[in-house]
Amino acid sequence: MLSALRASSSRSLLSLSRVRHFSTPDTPNTPEAAGWSAFTNTLFDPPPSAGSQGFAAPRRDGPRKGKGKGQRAGRATQGLGLFANNTNFTRLRLHCQSSPNNTMTTLTDADGATIAWFSGGSCGFKKGNRSTYEAGYQCAVRVFQKIEQLASNDGSIKVDMLFKGFGQGREALKGALLSTEGERIRPLILSITDRTPIKIGGTRAKKMPRN
What we know:
Elements: H1 2-23, H2 31-41, H3 69-80, E1 90-98, E2 103-109, E3 114-119, H4 133-154, E4 157-164, H5 168-178, E5 189-194
Parallel strand pairs: 1-4, 4-5
Antiparallel strand pairs: 1-2, 2-3
Helix pairs in contact: 4-5
Protein backbone atom coordinates (compact mmCIF):
# COMPACT_ATOMS: atom_id res chain seq x y z
CA MET A 1 0.00 0.00 0.00
CA LEU A 2 2.76 2.42 0.96
CA SER A 3 4.75 1.52 -2.14
CA ALA A 4 1.72 2.25 -4.35
CA LEU A 5 1.21 5.66 -2.70
CA ARG A 6 4.90 6.51 -3.13
CA ALA A 7 4.79 5.50 -6.77
CA SER A 8 1.67 7.61 -7.46
CA SER A 9 3.14 10.65 -5.66
CA SER A 10 6.38 10.31 -7.61
CA ARG A 11 4.43 10.14 -10.88
CA SER A 12 2.38 13.26 -9.97
CA LEU A 13 5.55 15.19 -9.05
CA LEU A 14 7.17 14.06 -12.26
CA SER A 15 4.18 15.23 -14.33
CA LEU A 16 4.19 18.58 -12.45
CA SER A 17 7.90 19.01 -13.17
CA ARG A 18 7.26 18.25 -16.84
CA VAL A 19 4.50 20.86 -16.97
CA ARG A 20 6.77 23.39 -15.34
CA HIS A 21 9.59 22.47 -17.69
CA PHE A 22 7.61 22.80 -20.92
CA SER A 23 5.56 25.83 -19.81
CA THR A 24 8.42 27.91 -18.41
CA PRO A 25 9.27 30.89 -20.66
CA ASP A 26 12.60 30.77 -22.48
CA THR A 27 13.86 34.12 -21.16
CA PRO A 28 13.96 34.10 -17.32
CA ASN A 29 14.19 37.90 -16.96
CA THR A 30 10.79 38.71 -18.56
CA PRO A 31 7.63 39.59 -16.60
CA GLU A 32 6.08 36.35 -17.83
CA ALA A 33 8.82 34.34 -16.17
CA ALA A 34 8.46 36.28 -12.92
CA GLY A 35 4.72 35.67 -12.90
CA TRP A 36 5.24 31.98 -13.58
CA SER A 37 7.65 31.62 -10.70
CA ALA A 38 5.24 33.39 -8.35
CA PHE A 39 2.47 31.05 -9.46
CA THR A 40 4.50 27.88 -8.97
CA ASN A 41 5.54 28.98 -5.51
CA THR A 42 1.89 29.10 -4.43
CA LEU A 43 1.24 25.52 -5.53
CA PHE A 44 2.86 24.08 -2.41
CA ASP A 45 1.51 26.65 0.09
CA PRO A 46 -0.77 25.30 2.88
CA PRO A 47 -4.49 26.02 2.54
CA PRO A 48 -5.84 29.13 4.32
CA SER A 49 -7.17 28.64 7.82
CA ALA A 50 -10.21 30.26 9.40
CA GLY A 51 -8.43 31.29 12.59
CA SER A 52 -10.11 31.99 15.89
CA GLN A 53 -12.64 34.47 14.46
CA GLY A 54 -13.55 32.37 11.42
CA PHE A 55 -13.65 33.53 7.80
CA ALA A 56 -14.79 37.03 7.02
CA ALA A 57 -18.34 37.49 5.73
CA PRO A 58 -18.69 38.02 1.97
CA ARG A 59 -18.76 41.67 1.03
CA ARG A 60 -21.68 43.05 -0.96
CA ASP A 61 -20.83 45.49 -3.74
CA GLY A 62 -24.22 47.24 -3.80
CA PRO A 63 -27.07 47.92 -1.39
CA ARG A 64 -29.10 44.96 -0.33
CA LYS A 65 -32.54 44.80 -1.90
CA GLY A 66 -35.51 44.31 0.35
CA LYS A 67 -37.23 40.95 0.18
CA GLY A 68 -40.39 41.75 2.11
CA LYS A 69 -43.80 40.94 0.72
CA GLY A 70 -44.88 44.57 0.92
CA GLN A 71 -41.82 45.78 -0.94
CA ARG A 72 -42.35 43.22 -3.70
CA ALA A 73 -45.96 44.27 -4.05
CA GLY A 74 -44.93 47.92 -4.16
CA ARG A 75 -42.44 47.28 -6.94
CA ALA A 76 -45.00 45.25 -8.90
CA THR A 77 -47.62 47.99 -8.60
CA GLN A 78 -45.10 50.61 -9.59
CA GLY A 79 -44.01 48.62 -12.64
CA LEU A 80 -47.55 47.82 -13.77
CA GLY A 81 -49.15 51.23 -13.35
CA LEU A 82 -52.31 50.20 -15.18
CA PHE A 83 -54.98 51.13 -12.67
CA ALA A 84 -53.03 53.57 -10.52
CA ASN A 85 -54.68 56.93 -9.86
CA ASN A 86 -53.02 59.98 -11.30
CA THR A 87 -53.41 63.42 -9.77
CA ASN A 88 -53.59 65.09 -13.18
CA PHE A 89 -56.74 63.31 -14.41
CA THR A 90 -59.51 60.99 -13.33
CA ARG A 91 -59.00 57.40 -14.43
CA LEU A 92 -62.00 55.26 -15.30
CA ARG A 93 -62.46 51.66 -16.42
CA LEU A 94 -64.81 50.48 -19.14
CA HIS A 95 -65.55 46.75 -18.83
CA CYS A 96 -67.16 44.91 -21.72
CA GLN A 97 -68.31 41.37 -20.92
CA SER A 98 -69.58 39.74 -24.08
CA SER A 99 -71.12 36.29 -23.67
CA PRO A 100 -73.03 34.16 -26.19
CA ASN A 101 -76.29 35.25 -24.52
CA ASN A 102 -75.83 38.91 -23.62
CA THR A 103 -73.52 41.93 -23.67
CA MET A 104 -72.81 43.93 -20.51
CA THR A 105 -70.83 47.17 -20.39
CA THR A 106 -69.87 48.59 -17.00
CA LEU A 107 -68.20 51.93 -16.29
CA THR A 108 -66.30 52.05 -12.99
CA ASP A 109 -63.76 54.26 -11.27
CA ALA A 110 -60.16 53.27 -10.54
CA ASP A 111 -61.22 51.44 -7.35
CA GLY A 112 -63.89 49.35 -9.11
CA ALA A 113 -67.00 51.23 -7.89
CA THR A 114 -69.75 51.13 -10.50
CA ILE A 115 -70.71 54.43 -12.10
CA ALA A 116 -73.06 53.19 -14.83
CA TRP A 117 -73.86 49.93 -16.58
CA PHE A 118 -75.80 48.88 -19.67
CA SER A 119 -76.78 45.51 -21.08
CA GLY A 120 -78.71 44.17 -24.01
CA GLY A 121 -81.79 43.76 -21.83
CA SER A 122 -81.64 47.28 -20.38
CA CYS A 123 -81.39 48.68 -23.90
CA GLY A 124 -84.77 47.13 -24.83
CA PHE A 125 -83.73 43.84 -26.47
CA LYS A 126 -85.56 40.66 -25.50
CA LYS A 127 -84.58 37.00 -25.35
CA GLY A 128 -82.15 35.98 -28.08
CA ASN A 129 -81.82 39.52 -29.43
CA ARG A 130 -79.78 40.51 -26.37
CA SER A 131 -76.71 38.79 -27.79
CA THR A 132 -76.87 40.39 -31.24
CA TYR A 133 -74.48 42.91 -32.72
CA GLU A 134 -77.06 45.68 -32.54
CA ALA A 135 -77.59 45.14 -28.82
CA GLY A 136 -73.86 45.47 -28.17
CA TYR A 137 -73.73 48.57 -30.36
CA GLN A 138 -76.51 50.27 -28.40
CA CYS A 139 -74.76 49.42 -25.13
CA ALA A 140 -71.57 51.00 -26.44
CA VAL A 141 -73.36 54.15 -27.60
CA ARG A 142 -75.04 54.68 -24.25
CA VAL A 143 -71.89 54.14 -22.22
CA PHE A 144 -70.04 56.54 -24.55
CA GLN A 145 -72.69 59.17 -23.83
CA LYS A 146 -72.14 58.68 -20.10
CA ILE A 147 -68.38 59.12 -20.53
CA GLU A 148 -68.93 62.30 -22.56
CA GLN A 149 -71.17 63.63 -19.79
CA LEU A 150 -68.51 62.96 -17.15
CA ALA A 151 -65.81 64.49 -19.35
CA SER A 152 -67.85 67.66 -19.82
CA ASN A 153 -68.26 68.00 -16.04
CA ASP A 154 -64.70 67.09 -15.07
CA GLY A 155 -62.67 67.92 -18.17
CA SER A 156 -59.79 65.53 -17.43
CA ILE A 157 -60.76 61.87 -17.86
CA LYS A 158 -58.84 58.85 -19.12
CA VAL A 159 -60.43 55.46 -19.77
CA ASP A 160 -58.98 51.94 -19.60
CA MET A 161 -60.94 49.50 -21.75
CA LEU A 162 -61.13 45.86 -20.68
CA PHE A 163 -62.69 43.14 -22.86
CA LYS A 164 -63.88 39.75 -21.66
CA GLY A 165 -65.52 37.10 -23.80
CA PHE A 166 -65.86 36.42 -27.52
CA GLY A 167 -69.49 37.38 -28.19
CA GLN A 168 -70.79 39.75 -30.85
CA GLY A 169 -70.90 42.63 -28.38
CA ARG A 170 -67.12 42.70 -28.34
CA GLU A 171 -66.94 43.52 -32.03
CA ALA A 172 -69.87 45.90 -31.66
CA LEU A 173 -68.04 47.94 -29.03
CA LYS A 174 -64.92 48.14 -31.19
CA GLY A 175 -67.01 49.15 -34.18
CA ALA A 176 -68.77 51.87 -32.19
CA LEU A 177 -65.44 53.17 -30.93
CA LEU A 178 -64.14 53.50 -34.50
CA SER A 179 -67.33 55.12 -35.80
CA THR A 180 -68.63 58.66 -35.38
CA GLU A 181 -70.20 57.77 -32.00
CA GLY A 182 -66.73 57.15 -30.57
CA GLU A 183 -65.03 60.16 -32.10
CA ARG A 184 -64.91 62.00 -28.77
CA ILE A 185 -64.05 58.87 -26.82
CA ARG A 186 -60.98 57.78 -28.80
CA PRO A 187 -58.70 60.57 -27.44
CA LEU A 188 -59.65 59.53 -23.89
CA ILE A 189 -58.62 55.88 -24.27
CA LEU A 190 -55.49 55.18 -22.28
CA SER A 191 -55.15 51.39 -22.64
CA ILE A 192 -57.02 48.40 -24.09
CA THR A 193 -56.72 45.05 -22.31
CA ASP A 194 -58.15 41.62 -23.08
CA ARG A 195 -59.05 39.80 -19.87
CA THR A 196 -60.69 36.77 -21.43
CA PRO A 197 -59.73 33.67 -19.39
CA ILE A 198 -58.23 30.85 -21.42
CA LYS A 199 -58.85 27.36 -20.05
CA ILE A 200 -55.79 25.12 -20.13
CA GLY A 201 -56.80 21.64 -19.06
CA GLY A 202 -59.39 22.28 -16.37
CA THR A 203 -62.57 20.31 -15.83
CA ARG A 204 -64.38 18.18 -18.34
CA ALA A 205 -66.24 20.12 -21.04
CA LYS A 206 -69.99 20.17 -21.20
CA LYS A 207 -71.64 17.47 -23.30
CA MET A 208 -72.50 18.62 -26.80
CA PRO A 209 -76.27 18.77 -27.50
CA ARG A 210 -77.73 16.14 -29.83
CA ASN A 211 -80.33 17.24 -32.33
